[in-house]
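Field reference: sequence -> structure
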Amino acid sequence: MFEQVPQGFLIVGAAVLGAVIGSFVGAVLVRLPQGQSVVHGRSKCDHCGKLLSPLELVPIFSFLAQRGKCRGCGGAIGGWALASEVAGSVIGVGAVLWARDGLTLAAMILGWQLLLLALLDLRHFWLPRALTGLLAASGAIVVAIEAWVMGTIDPLLISVSGGAMGFVMLWAIARFYRRARGREGMGAGDPPLLGAIGLWLGPLGVVEVMLGASILGIVAAIVMLVSKRKIAADTALPLGTCLAATAWPIFLVQGLG
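Structure field:
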């Protein structure tokens, strides 16, 4: 799709588009948990309620120019907005540079959805079923297009088996833990998320994502210990964030399942 466009233009365009998408992700990260509309209503300062002008909404640059503070009241904007915009831009550029042939757009779509889910779980320990369902639906559409282009149903069969494997694997683990310990040990949104990821990556990708997420969880626990934070049996770690952070690089390397 993008073969005729100079790579430099693609990189700049992807960086800008990614930053814009990341800005939207940052807004959703604040509004959705509060039950606010994510498509209606102007952006405003969380402290003083001042409506933000277009110049105050330029991704990344507005934050840096204002030194992370509202121009009206001086209240801190917070690093979540900047992190969302930078991560969105990185995903756009990464998709252009490293996605497998023909999967640049798919890599962007997957990456930006995983970014939102990862941040929601990291900040709120919440994986909305609607967003997980959207991730699954987009994966099914991409795989269906791949199957149509290849003229075979094999990609669909691999996708469905990956989705089923991802969901059942975490569901079974959660059920076993609940029976053994008498309490929940996993968020209800984690099995559907791995199922949706499985539609994109297939069975092998599910195994790789589980392994990568486990390693990230161990690293997070080590960081908590080094920073002298107390870790108990009921200490919550955002598994969804680990799954999402692992799934996107794996997609860049292997493509569709």
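Note: The first helix runs from residue 7 to 31.
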